[in-house]
Amino acid sequence: MLATPDGDRDAALRYLTQLAERVTAAETSSAVAEVLTEVAAPVHGLLPLTREVIVRAWIASSDPQGAAPGNEPEPIARLGSTANSLSEAARVVLHARNHAARRTQPPATAPAPAAGRAQSPVSRRR
Predict the structure, then answer these.
(1) What is the Rg, in whole angstroms, of the alpha carbon atoms belonging to the chain?
(2) How do the pLDDT tens digits run along the chain, 126 residues long?
(3) Which of 39, 72, 102, 119 has CB atoms 3.0–4.6 Å from 123's, for a disulfide?
């Protein structure tokens, strides 16, 4: 069950729904990049924050009675792998965000030569 610290589960669900709607309605790659930033931003993005929750749950549940590392039950051990997968997912999303953000820049083209421009000294010598 998704919930925010203050118990406003509906606000958290609305936020996720709004992100989905914003990316669906995006008309520019810049708008897509903005949503992807919210998903994967290194500190406050949804994926890094979710990873933090998973890591803390793994730590809290993997050694409750002082068992040796590596002796935790399979579902608990897999939380560490899941945290790594979330880190990789955030990296991929940020890469896609960077790609989308670059597409918004106009292509760099050289200006066309002005009509009636004098030839360069090198051209005149030929």
Answers:
(1) 25
(2) 455 566 678 888 899 999 999 999 999 999 999 999 999 999 899 999 999 999 999 888 876 565 555 566 788 888 888 999 999 999 999 999 999 998 755 555 555 555 554 554 455 454
(3) 119
